[in-house]
Amino acid sequence: MLKSFFHTGFVVKDIEVSIKFYAEVLGMRIAGRTEREGEFVEQVLAFPGAHIKGGFVDMGKGHQLELIQYLSPISGENHLHRNDLGASHLAFFVDDLDKFFEDTSQKGITYNNPPASMFDDNGKLSRKAAYAQDPDGNWLEFVEVF
Question: Under a CB-based contact definition with an 8 Å cutoff, are residues 88 and 82 in contact?
Answer without folding.
Answer: no
